[in-house]
Q: What sequence folds into this?
């Protein structure tokens, strides 16, 4: 099933879960003057992902484009960095360019088993990743996999 933004929604048993939990994937979409988070997708059993980019960008302002993937059971968040920094070519800048485009195109066409698998694929594509532990339940996890909340604080919009 295609959803806004041409992202592919996996055929997991999502609709029955979403209908009963009070949070929908659409609730997780975020747009501000400087930042957007697109509609999240399920990318495997217990794994959710969303694409983040600047809504408005101008030279000299901070630029950060990435994809995050969250393991809803462990609450670990993998960030795949596509672009970071404000000036291409600076030593601090990370620019995925064509590697990021290829990874993104192939990302939505299959399901994954773990964050490690996705991190390995990103590394093979030449992309940098970061991992961190989230404290609270993420919106996309609440929408797709509320049964995996465990003892984490519930997502509140």
A:
């Amino acid at each position: 099933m295609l959803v806004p933004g041409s992202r592919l929604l996996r055929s997991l048993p999502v609709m029955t879960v979403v209908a009963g939990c009070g949070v929908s994937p659409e609730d997780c979409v975020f747009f501000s003057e400087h930042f957007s988070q697109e509609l999240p997708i399920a990318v495997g059993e217990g794994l959710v992902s969303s694409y983040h980019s600047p809504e408005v960008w101008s030279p000299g302002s901070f630029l950060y484009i990435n994809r995050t993937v969250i393991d809803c059971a462990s609450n670990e968040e993998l960030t795949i960095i596509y672009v970071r920094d404000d000036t291409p070519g600076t030593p601090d800048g990370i620019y995925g360019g064509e590697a990021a485009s290829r990874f993104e195109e192939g990302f939505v066409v299959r399901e994954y088993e773990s964050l490690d698998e996705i991190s390995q694929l990103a590394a093979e594509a030449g992309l940098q990743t970061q991992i961190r532990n989230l404290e609270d339940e993420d919106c996309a996890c609440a929408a797709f996999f509320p049964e995996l909340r465990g003892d984490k604080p519930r997502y509140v919009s």
